[in-house]
Write a structure and sequence with these properties.
It is a single chain. By secondary structure, the chain is α+β, with helices and mostly antiparallel strands. The protein has one domain: Transcription elongation factor, GreA/GreB, C-terminal domain (Chitinase A, domain 3, Roll), CATH 3.10.50. The chain contains 3 helices and 5 strands; from the N terminus they run ααβββαββ. It has a 5-stranded mixed beta sheet with strand order 3-2-1-5-4. A hairpin with a 7-residue loop joins β4 and β5. α1 runs antiparallel to α2.
Amino acid sequence: MKEEKIFTKYNCERILSLFNNYRIENPTELEYIETLKQQILKNKPVDADKINDNIVTINTILILKNLGNGSQKEYHLTLPDESNTKCEKLSILSMVGSQVLGNKIGAIVKENSESEKYYMIEKIIYQPEAAGDNNI
């Protein structure tokens, strides 16, 4: 059984606003947008001060472990306009970004639908809500 994702109210507001104002670049983004929208509508958002520090939120810095070769890499989960794969900034509308958002440490995500690469959320280095930065 797939675990439900957890979102803060503020993150939900930002994501839903993004959906209303975002110009879709390709059909894959539309798929991620629709999936995120359904997940948000299906799950009850929580107050920022009530979210556990093991949950990935927007602007979280996390370590993903490649389950194939064991390598680990640090990523920063961002909104699409701040993403930059060269700087390890993942958009919430990327395949991996949309999967880690709202998930907790230990969750397994797939690189993309054609790939057999899997990653585990190994560690959260910084989560805005845990640091008291509830509105970034």
